[in-house]
């Protein structure tokens, strides 16, 4: 089908500017005074770490394009240079908003509960100063490495993302002029890294009034910096921080061994081009000039910070003991009702497919699935894809044990999982040592699918058990990310699962697939077909409806297909957490489309797709977003939800998310997001609803909130 009429640049929003809007939505949670104070600290910290990653990857990639004079416009008609200019303006405003939130809202609110962050070491009382100086001598001084720059010593290499203190120093024994005045100061540059191995902040002894104070490590170092340069006077000292290009560029055709090549590239990540410089806003101009020159920084990549650099320390502050009253009560994932019996996991799966909804339901069944398979004498083989796993992964341990128990264990470890490459290399080597067959990703493709296959010998013959999910096999993030999965022994899905692993290990693609929708083979075409079918039904005057819950929407062909379907009368509701390049409210084109983003205590991560299909409702879940990389450059799996009860459950997840009017932000035609108008409406927070529902079901109660009818949500009118 020709969608060219729907591919005009004015119908699309730039993906980078859309991402910045997402970070603004996270920031709006930090500014919301209805949210407990320490949760607001956490959200502000998240905006800072998000922005770091955005610069290291997305901005770095655009800068690479500019350097190579790549001028092709994106789907919104913006060249890389246009995008960098717009990004600079938007991120400077975002940072200004971050620090307005920190200085004007959070710091006063912390003071109100008797918790003080000492913003400058000059503010310390005599007792506090003595404590800080002793702490410096005992804990900090031995760890520091001061470095100076002069004619014999070049400018030192400053590592990516590290916090540093730059100083101008002058020799104490400079000869005085005859009139007794000093001659012109001969200033030298010096720098010291704030050590990441030490806590970023130090708690000071409690005051007599019961108040508590914290001071940041850089302030302690700055106060004592003269002790690092004893033969010099310190003229000024100010913190600074750089961000480097961390986008791994691997020529896979030239890389004889992907493992070695990635290890080599990881080292380069520390020394890539400097793409952002953050400095204290009152930095001495002479010191700033040196930094700008040495790092080759232009004004658009320079950020003057009116407060502490690198707000990610607020996440550590969130962990402070004694402030539970200012946090959301910790939620404990509920047991899965279908597994609350004495039967083993395989017997339970044979009874019926099992839906897992994390973190509302426990992730333990996924770990137990692998653990029991590792010990079960009837299990012959375990095959699994690993994209991101936790630091001390029980799944890795179970796979290693299975291999030691003599089972066939095949694991695809994706070495190109961004920022987890190093971790994954360590796991891959460990699994190999245990006797697992390890596949190191695929040439030119990332393996992002979430699938585990257990092959078991039973009385009736060989049976295959499969876990399919929307999220990683990471027991740690499973407590923070919302994801869905199923455990099944459906024979057709088992056949497809075998085909997936044969494809990954031996490149043998099957001639046909039963049920699994696999990228990059045929997923794009399958989604386009399902969207077209809804459009056809609408054109025939039949009811037509699409609901999709995804993390990102930036694929032009998919968006154009949605526009075409909307123009034909298909009602489309999208729940898109992050990037959304689709524009709502375009007359005659996207008036039937709503987009909402939910930003809550958990990170929305599940991908769910619903098509009305002329009354034969189709529901799918999987690992893929509607992005070119997911559809064309990754191995992804989307699977049908066919069990009638589970299908109702999943449709209900979509329904409640569309009803959310507390954590949802609704996309407006001008690209802004607003919270829904709650006047006269019952407050609905989807995440709280699912927590309560899972807890009640696990306790055997009929969920009080249980509503099973899938009613199309009315468009939000703000």
Layout of SSEs?
Layout: H1 15-31, H2 37-67, H3 80-112, E1 115-118, H4 126-140, E2 147-149, E3 163-171, E4 188-193, E5 201-204, E6 212-216, H5 217-223, E7 232-244, H6 258-269, E8 274-280, H7 285-295, E9 302-305, H8 313-318, H9 345-351, E10 354-358, H10 364-375, E11 379-386, H11 394-404, E12 408-413, H12 421-433, E13 437-439, E14 446-447, E15 451-458, E16 461-469, E17 481-488, H13 491-506, E18 517-519, H14 523-539, E19 545-550, H15 556-567, E20 571-576, E21 593-598, E22 603-604, E23 607-611, E24 618-622, H16 628-632, E25 634-640, H17 644-659, E26 664-667, E27 673-674, H18 686-698
Structure commentary:
Mg(2+) binds at residues 388, 418. Residues 344-509, 516-687 form the Polyphosphate kinase C-terminal domain. This is Polyphosphate kinase. By secondary structure, the protein is α/β, with parallel strands linked by helices. It is 35% helix and 21% strand. It has 18 helices and 27 strands. Strands 14, 18, 19, 20, 21, 23, 24, 25, 26 and 27 form a 10-stranded mixed beta sheet that branches. Strands 10, 11, 12, 13, 15, 16, 17 and 22 form an 8-stranded mixed beta sheet that branches. The longest helix has 33 residues, at 80-112. The radius of gyration is 28 Å and the shape is globular. The protein starts with 14 loop residues before the first helix and ends in a 20-residue tail after the last helix. 43% of the residues are buried.
């Amino acid at each position: 089908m020709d969608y060219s009429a729907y591919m005009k640049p004015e119908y699309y929003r730039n993906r980078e500017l859309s991402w910045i809007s997402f970070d603004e939505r996270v920031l709006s949670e930090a500014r919301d005074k209805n949210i407990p104070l320490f949760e607001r600290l956490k959200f502000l910290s998240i905006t800072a770490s998000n922005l770091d990653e955005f610069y290291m990857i997305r901005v770095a990639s655009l800068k690479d394009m500019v350097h190579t004079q790549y001028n092709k416009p994106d789907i919104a008609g913006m060249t890389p240079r246009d995008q960098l200019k717009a990004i600079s303006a938007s991120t400077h405003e975002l940072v200004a908003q971050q620090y307005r939130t920190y200085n004007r809202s959070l710091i006063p609110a912390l003071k109100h509960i008797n918790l003080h962050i000492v913003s400058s070491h000059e503010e310390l009382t005599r007792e506090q100063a003595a404590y800080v100086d002793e702490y410096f001598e005992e804990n900090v001084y031995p760890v520091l490495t001061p470095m100076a720059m002069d004619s014999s010593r070049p400018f030192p290499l400053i590592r990516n993302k590290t916090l540093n203190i730059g100083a101008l120093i002058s020799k104490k024994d400079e000869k005085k002029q005859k009139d007794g005045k000093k001659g012109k100061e001969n200033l030298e540059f010096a720098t010291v890294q704030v050590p990441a191995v030490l806590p970023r902040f130090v708690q000071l002894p409690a005051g007599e009034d019961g108040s508590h104070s914290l001071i940041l490590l850089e302030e302690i170092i700055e106060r004592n910096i003269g002790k690092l340069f004893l033969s010099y006077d310190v003229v000024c000292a100010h913190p600074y921080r750089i961000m480097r290009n961390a986008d791994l560029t691997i020529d896979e055709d030239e890389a004889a061994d992907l493992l070695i090549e990635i290890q080599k590239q990881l080292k380069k990540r520390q020394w890539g081009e400097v793409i952002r410089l953050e400095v204290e806003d009152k930095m001495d101009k002479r010191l700033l000039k040196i930094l700008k020159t040495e790092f080759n920084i232009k004004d658009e990549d320079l950020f003057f910070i009116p407060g502490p650099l690198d707000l990610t320390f607020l996440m550590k502050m969130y962990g402070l003991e004694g402030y539970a009253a200012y946090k959301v009560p910790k939620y404990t994932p509920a047991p899965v009702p279908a597994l609350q019996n004495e039967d083993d996991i395989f017997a339970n799966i044979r009874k019926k497919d099992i839906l897992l909804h994390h973190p509302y339901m426990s992730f333990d069944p996924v770990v137990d699935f692998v653990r029991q398979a590792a010990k079960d004498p009837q299990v012959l083989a375990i095959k699994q894809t690993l994209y991101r796993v936790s630091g001390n992964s029980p799944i890795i341990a179970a796979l290693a044990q299975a291999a030691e128990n003599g089972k066939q264990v095949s694991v695809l470890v994706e070495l190109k999982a961004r920022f987890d490459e190093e971790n994954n290399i360590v796991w891959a080597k460990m699994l190999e040592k245990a006797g697992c067959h390890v596949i190191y990703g695929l040439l030119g493709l990332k393996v992002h699918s979430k699938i585990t296959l257990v092959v078991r010998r039973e009385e009736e013959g060989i049976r295959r058990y499969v876990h399919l999910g929307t999220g990683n096999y990471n027991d740690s993030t499973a407590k923070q990310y919302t994801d869905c999965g199923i455990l099944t022994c459906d024979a057709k899905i088992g056949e497809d699962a075998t085909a997936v692993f044969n494809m990954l290990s031996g490149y043998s693609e099957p001639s046909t697939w039963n049920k699994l929708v696999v990228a990059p083979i045929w997923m794009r075409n399958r989604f386009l077909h399902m969207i077209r079918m809804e459009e056809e039904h609408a054109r025939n005057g039949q009811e037509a409806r699409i609901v999709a819950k995804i993390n990102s929407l930036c694929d032009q062909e998919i968006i154009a297909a949605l526009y075409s379907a909307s123009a034909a009368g298909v009602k489309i509701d999208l729940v898109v957490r992050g990037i959304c390049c689709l524009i709502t409210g375009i007359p005659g084109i996207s008036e039937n489309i709503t987009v909402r983003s939910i930003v809550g205590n958990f990170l929305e991560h599940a991908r769910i797709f619903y098509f009305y299909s002329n009354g034969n409702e189709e529901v799918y879940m999987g690992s893929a977003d509607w992005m070119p990389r997911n559809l064309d450059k990754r191995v992804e799996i989307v699977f049908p939800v066919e069990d009638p009860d589970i299908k109702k459950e999943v449709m209900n997840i979509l329904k409640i998310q569309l009803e959310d009017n507390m954590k949802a932000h609704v996309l407006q035609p001008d690209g802004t997001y607003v919270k829904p108008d709650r006047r006269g409406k019952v407050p609905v927070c989807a995440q709280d609803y699912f927590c309560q529902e899972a807890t009640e079901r696990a306790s055997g109660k009929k969920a009080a909130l249980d509503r099973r009818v899938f009613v199309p949500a009315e468009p939000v009118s703000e």
